[in-house]
């Protein structure tokens, strides 16, 4: 089983792997993951401490939630109690809550629920999933499914719905996730997925007539990486008989086929997939997500 934590370090070995057609040894990969994670945990010993950049943000928003996805994947491969305790500390510091509360419809807020659910499965304390389940349930109850207006939201939100579907054995979560996904794909901004190119525009502001400086469509590397990760995560989480798997798998294959010829000779992808001169140079986050998706498939 391939885990998302690999994406945290895959770019550091990608170049040599592409040139030599040889993957690094499992022990080497594990050591790199453990070292990377130790750096993060040592830098942020207080898991509840707010993040300060251009403004102060709580540490239960999407940027930190993505890290904890990786931490829990690492814990599955290397069950170090220190990893589990650090994740629990994060949940407890936030009282297992979501940024902006249970009424939030924002996938960036709900992303924390992925780890909350994983921790609940290890130790089923009701408070661990109370808020994330309430938040998703109120989204479903509203009957509205146009919340995912940007493609990053697919990776922040879809795995939460899939995990709740597995946990509760209630297919309502799968069906509503599909409705929201299909709105993003085919309706939002005229549809954010370009089936002809097998790639996604980031949001409605980047749908044509918007063009990159070289005249090509604007396909953001990391944004498309988030979609690849979302599809892989959902396919990994849902049972084989869950509805709409064929749709997710079909789109996954289309995207991977489209991405292969866009890869740079050094193994990376560009920030703008079809304009190498716009913010040109090696792009690590999209590259890591693409490598993760390709490794899964």
Mean pLDDT: 93
Number of domains: 1
Enumerate the spans where pLDDT stays under 50 for 5 or more consecutive residues.
1-20
Main sheet: strand order? 1-2
Beta-strand percentage? Answer: under 5%
Q: What is the number of helical segments per DSSP (H or I, 4+ residues)?
A: 12
Distance between the termini: 10 Å
Give the radius of gyration. 19 Å
Shape: globular
CATH classification, class level: Mainly Alpha
What oligomeric arrangement do these chains adopt?
single chain
Number of β-strand runs: 4
Structural class: mainly alpha
In the CATH hierarchy, the third-tier topology is known as: Glycosyltransferase
CATH architecture: Alpha/alpha barrel
State the helical fraction.
Answer: 55-70%
Describe the secondary structure blueprint for this structure:
Elements: H1 10-20, H2 26-43, E1 51-52, E2 56-57, H3 62-77, H4 81-93, H5 107-110, H6 113-122, H7 127-142, H8 152-168, H9 172-186, E3 193-194, E4 199-200, H10 221-237, H11 245-259, H12 284-296
Antiparallel strand pairs: 1-2, 3-4
Helix pairs in contact: 3-4, 3-6, 6-7, 6-8, 8-9, 8-10, 10-11, 10-12
Brief summary:
The chain is an all-alpha fold and 297 residues long.
């Amino acid at each position: 089983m391939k885990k998302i934590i690999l994406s945290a370090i895959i770019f550091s070995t990608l170049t040599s792997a592409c040139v030599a057609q040889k993957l690094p040894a499992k022990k080497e990969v594990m050591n790199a993951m453990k070292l990377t994670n130790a750096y993060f945990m040592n830098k942020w010993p207080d898991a509840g401490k707010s993040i300060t950049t251009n403004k102060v943000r709580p540490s239960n928003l999407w940027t930190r939630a993505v890290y904890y996805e990786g931490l829990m994947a690492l814990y599955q491969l290397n069950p170090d109690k220190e990893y589990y305790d650090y994740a629990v500390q994060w949940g407890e510091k936030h009282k297992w809550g979501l940024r902006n509360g249970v009424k939030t419809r924002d996938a960036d807020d709900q992303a924390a629920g992925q780890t909350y659910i994983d921790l609940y499965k290890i130790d089923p304390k009701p408070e661990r999933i109370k808020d994330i389940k309430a938040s998703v349930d109120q989204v479903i109850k509203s009957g509205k499914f146009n919340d995912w207006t940007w493609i990053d939201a697919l990776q922040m939100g879809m795995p939460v719905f899939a995990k709740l579907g597995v946990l509760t054995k209630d297919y309502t979560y799968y069906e509503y996730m599909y409705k929201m996904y299909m709105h993003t794909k085919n309706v939002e901004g005229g549809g954010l997925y370009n089936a002809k190119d097998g790639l996604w525009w980031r949001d409605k502001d980047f749908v044509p007539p918007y063009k990159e400086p070289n005249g090509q469509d604007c396909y953001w590397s990391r944004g498309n990486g988030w979609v690849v990760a979302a599809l892989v995560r959902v396919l990994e989480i849902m049972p084989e008989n869950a509805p709409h798997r064929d749709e997710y798998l079909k789109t996954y294959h289309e995207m991977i086929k489209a991405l292969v010829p866009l890869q740079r000779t050094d193994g990376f992808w560009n920030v703008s997939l079809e304009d190498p001169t716009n913010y040109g140079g090696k792009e690590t986050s999209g590259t890591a997500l693409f490598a993760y998706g390709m490794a899964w498939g």
